[in-house]
Amino acid sequence: MKPVALVTTKPGFEPQLREELNKLPIKKKILWTPFRGILKIISQNPYEFLNIIKENKNNLKFLLRVIPLEMECQTDIDEIKKAVSFLINEKKESLKNKSFVVRCNRRGNHEFTSEVVERIIGKYVLDNFKDLNLRVNLKNWDFKINIEILQDKSYISIFQDEFNELVIQENIDNLKNLKRYVERPLNRSERKMDELIKKFPFIFENLNCVVDIGSSPGGWAKMLSKKAKKVYAIDTGELKINANNIIHIKKRAEHVDFEKDINEEIDLITNDTNLYPDESIFLTLKFAKYLKSDRYIIHTLKARKSKTKKEDLEQVLKILDQYKNIEVFEIVNLKANTKNELTIILKKV
C-alpha cells in the first residue's frame, strides 16, 4: 500500500473524521500528520479511494476535502521534477496539446515558497516536454500538476477530468457553525485518552470520582467527564472545556488539600503533566492513598529526552517499588504519545 490521499477537516475534528473514514469499505490505514486538520490515507490506489469517497460522501460529515496522491518523494526540487516527469510520461497521450497549471500547497519550513516551486516546475515541463505542445493557462487549464508538500515529504498528482480534488462545500458550511472548544477535540492529549479508553475499557467502568492532575487545557478531563459522574481537574491553567461534572481545582497539585478540596474516595487517577519524571510520579502517589483498592492510575512518563526514556522509566519504577500496594499493571507506548513519552498503568491492590 502507499499514500493515496490527503483528507482535511476543521482543525480539532480529526478523531471524528478518522472514525467516519474507518467505516469505508476499502482496505486502508489512516495516519495522523503533524499538521492540524490533515490526515493521510494509505491504500492500494488513489482512483479507487476517490470513487469510494464519492459513493459514501453522504456519510462523511466531517470531511472537507480529498486530495488524491499519485506519487510520493522527498521534498527536494530535483526529486519533485523526477516525479512530475514520470507522471507526464505515463499520461502523455492524454496530455498532448493541452493547457496546464502548476499548483503547490506547502506546509512546514523550507527555503523556498510555493510560488517558487510552481514557477520552477512550470518551466521544467515546458522545457522538457516540447513534443507535447503544452501551454500554461492559470485559469482555464485542461490539467493541473498538483504538489502537496508536508515538511520533508512531497506528493504529486496530475488532475484532469474526473480525477481531481474533491471539495464538500456542504460540510465546510456546516462545520463553520460548530463552537471551537465545546464541540471539538482539543489537542493530541485527547487522542491518547481515546486510545486508552478503547484499549482498556474496564478501567473506565463505574467511575464515580476521577482526579485528573495537570488538566489544562482540558483534553483528558473532557473525555473523562463522559465516563465519570465527577472529575476533579487540577491545574492552575484555564480549562477550555465546558461540562457540568468537571470541578476545576485551580491550584498546583502539590498544594491541593485533599480533605478540603476533594474529600471522597477516588475511582481513577490520571496524570499527564509536563514535569520531570520523578516530580510527576510523586504527585500521582500523593493522591494514590485516597484511591479505592482494585482501581487504576494512568500516568504519562515524560522523559527528559528520548535517549533518557529507559533511564527515566527505571527511576520511576524504582520509586514505585517503595509502594507495596501499587503494582505496575502495564506499560504502553500509545500511538499518540510523543517519542519522549510512555504511558504507565498502575493498579492499587
UniProtKB/TrEMBL annotation:
GO BP field: methylation; thiazole biosynthetic process; tRNA 4-thiouridine biosynthesis
GO cellular component: cytosol
InterPro entries reported for this sequence: RNA_MeTrfase_FtsJ_dom (IPR002877), SAM-dependent_MTases_sf (IPR029063), THUMP_dom (IPR004114), THUMPD1-like (IPR040183), tRNA_sulfurtransferase_ThiI (IPR050102)
Record-level Gene Ontology MF annotations: methyltransferase activity; RNA binding
Domain THUMP, residue spans: 51-160
Pfam families: FtsJ, THUMP
Alphabetized UniProt keyword annotations: RNA-binding
Top-level division of the source organism's lineage: Archaea
Alphabetical list of CDD domains matching this protein: THUMP_THUMPD1_like (cd11717)
Presence of the UniProt keyword Ribonucleoprotein in the record: no
Protein name: THUMP domain protein
Organism: Methanocaldococcus bathoardescens
